[in-house]
Design a protein that fits this description.
Metallo-beta-lactamase, Chain A, 7-stranded mixed beta sheet, alpha/beta
Length: 259
């Protein structure tokens, strides 16, 4: 753990059709007092273990109920069953509104067991209120609705005036821009790459991510949740046409200290 207010590890940067060797969405945020994971998509749990002992996690927070953002909760559950959390009690798992029953049903179908019992053995499953703040040790989380095909929520993690905003999956959206206002790092999806999408919309291009970053006045932009269609560097170049600040293309294993 560095001396920065917030540390970020890109555990998984892939879209629903991830680039070769990459995991789907997952981001480890650490403060001096907390370690939390935002989303845990397929392929992410194995890579998470390269960054942290999963038994040390303080919370998991899920942005929305698409598989590429939560499916590795299942292997994590099996791992915690054998090697329980080093924290007191079960690991808090925060889901969007309506998520508890939906996840229980998914686990019942995939494991052929009682989904509630399957999860409750190792997780303390709760639903966050997107209109309220969520305090996890010394980190404060706030939420805003994203523009996606199903209910999804962008997440702002903040400590001592330093902040990371994760867009979740979203088309260009005023509420996400407002959540990202003046943040230290805007971690924004660029699923469409250099392309576009017809209505109904649920994703952004790299240029649109840059435009949201410009409008929000963020300090830095990191593009994530993208596939293999566009060459390395092309997405960052497209975002720089709209946003004058530093831009990077997130990749699995990248570590950033935010201060």
């Amino acid at each position: 753990m560095s001396a920065a207010a917030l540390d970020l590890v890109i555990v998984g940067s892939g879209s629903a059709a991830p680039r070769p060797g990459r995991a789907c969405s997952s981001y480890l945020v650490r403060t001096p007092g907390a370690a939390m994971v935002l989303d845990l998509g397929n392929g992410a749990f194995g890579k998470l273990q390269l960054a942290i002992d999963y038994r040390q996690l303080d919370a998991l927070v899920i942005s929305h109920l698409h598989g590429d953002h939560l499916l590795d909760l299942i292997p994590l559950r099996f791992a915690l069953k054998k090697r329980p959390s080093l924290r007191d009690g079960r690991l808090p798992l925060w889901l969007p509104p309506g998520g508890k029953m939906a996840l229980q049903q998914l686990c019942s179908m995939l494991t052929r067991s009682d989904g509630a019992a399957f999860l409750d053995e190792v997780f303390l499953v709760r639903e966050y209120d997107p209109s309220s703040q969520l305090q996890i040790a010394d980190a404060r989380l706030t939420f805003a609705p994203a523009r996606h095909y199903i209910p999804a929520f962008a997440i702002r993690a903040e400590r001592d005036g330093t902040s990371i905003v994760y867009s979740a999956d979203t088309a260009p959206c005023e509420s996400v821009v407002e959540l990202a206002r003046d943040c230290s790092l805007f971690l924004c999806e660029a699923t469409l790459g250099l392309g576009s999408e017809e209505e109904p919309r649920g994703h952004s291009s790299a240029a649109e991510a840059g435009e949201m970053a410009r409008r929000a006045g963020v300090a830095r932009l990191a593009l994530t949740h993208y596939g293999a269609a566009d060459p390395v560097g092309a997405l960052a170049s497209a975002a720089r046409e709209r946003f004058a600040g530093p831009v990077l293309e997130a990749d699995d294993g990248l570590e950033l200290s935010i201060s």
